Amino acid sequence: MKKLLSLILGATLVFSCTDQLEEIQPQNSVSDFVAFSDGTTALGTLMGVYSSAQDGDVLGGTSAMVQEFQSDNVEFLGSFPTFNDVKNYVTLSDNGSTGAIYRDNFRLILTANNVIANIPLVADEQFQQATRDQYVAEAKFLRALAYFNLVNMFGAPYSDNNGAGLGVPIVTEAFTGDVILFERATTAEVHGQIIQDLNEALPDLPTSFSAAEGGRGRATQGAVRAFFARLHLIRGEYPQAADFAGQLINNPDYELGADYSFFGQDTDEHIFLIQNSTIDGSSWATWFNGADLGARGDAPFSQDLLDAHDPADRRLTDLSVQGVNADDGNSIFTTKFPDAVNNSDDSPVFRITEMYLTRAEALAETNGINQESIDLINDLRARAGLADVAAGDFATPADLITLILDERRKELAFEGHRRNDLLRRRQGLRPAGDANFADAAFGQPKTLLPIPQREVDLNPNLVQNAGY
Fold this sequence. Notes:
By secondary structure, this protein is mainly alpha-helical. It has a single domain (7-279, 347-458), classed as Serine Threonine Protein Phosphatase 5, Tetratricopeptide repeat, CATH 1.25.40. The chain is built from 17 helices and four strands. Strands 1-4 form a two-stranded antiparallel ribbon. The longest helix is centred in the N-terminal third of the chain and has 26 residues, at 129-154. It is globular, with a radius of gyration of 21 Å. The protein starts with 31 loop residues before the first helix and ends in a 10-residue tail after the last helix. The relative contact order is 0.15.
């Protein structure tokens, strides 16, 4: 499937260092000869892929914020015209903010491609084959994450005709200087590439890393299984989703946090997270905190999300605070990402909580009203200070699934899941009564982000999304 160029092929590889591996400096834009001269420089180049993932437009907060306010979780009050256009469903194809998300995710992909292609070629007798295989596996995992990000935002939902709609270009080879113009693959084909990367990565990854090696900030077999659970859920493949989620739930390395103090920490609640330090500058707190705390005050709770909570729900009482919004008024903000001064908040990618929700939903879809789904949800409700539910509370399986989805919304709010959860259920992104309700209905053009106009201008083989 040949054919795309664009600004992404000229992307420079400028990286910051990771907190846990400060002695291994991620490589900058240096020649392959230097970047892959031995095992140590190869590790530094792999760390560069992780550093690309720290970018706000990738897994550092901004792309999650966009997906949250495009749905019904966040009331975006900021002054950025590009974000306001997305919020109001009047986005143009030359939108600079959505273009940056597209570019920066492909930048990670190109960096990962370089690692995957060159690490097997490193001429270093001390660089063991198992370690080489592990580094390649980590790069494939990160590449899969970037493709998942891209296809969810810019591609047609898999729930629309089983992924037959257009996704994004698949680029898996290192850039060698030849200009190749890539066509857009279908969403199903992008999923196929993700599945291939995960299947190839799984056997070569360790089950864990020490804190000195990066802890839960590096890809493991558990992270791959969590990714499979999420991917199968979005594809409506419920038995597989339930199975992978169950493998994590039954793994003693992962455990529900007793309360909500695990945010920003490397704990058993986390399966995989992007670790940030004060020099990395994640954007989570910038968007999701009040202006009185040094942030922008742009993205507080929507009223719809506030109304979804019981007033005694600890996911509201323990994880929110009143603050000054971007309009100089008062709003309720999440406290999941508190560091608006140094912007060092970690990026939660896979948590064990998500696996509880995934297995509960998948089992309900497969088996109807069942005790295991109810028990899983009651574990989460107990942590939130809410009463248990029982099988007799549900007249139909659909009633149980509705409750599970409501619990999922509240547990994972502000982490970038809501838009995709609505689309995979073929639901509109905004509630009835919202000014953009009609434009946010499932299947409406601007529920998808535009392929950047510069990409389309440079590459005649790219097809733009409808409505742009």
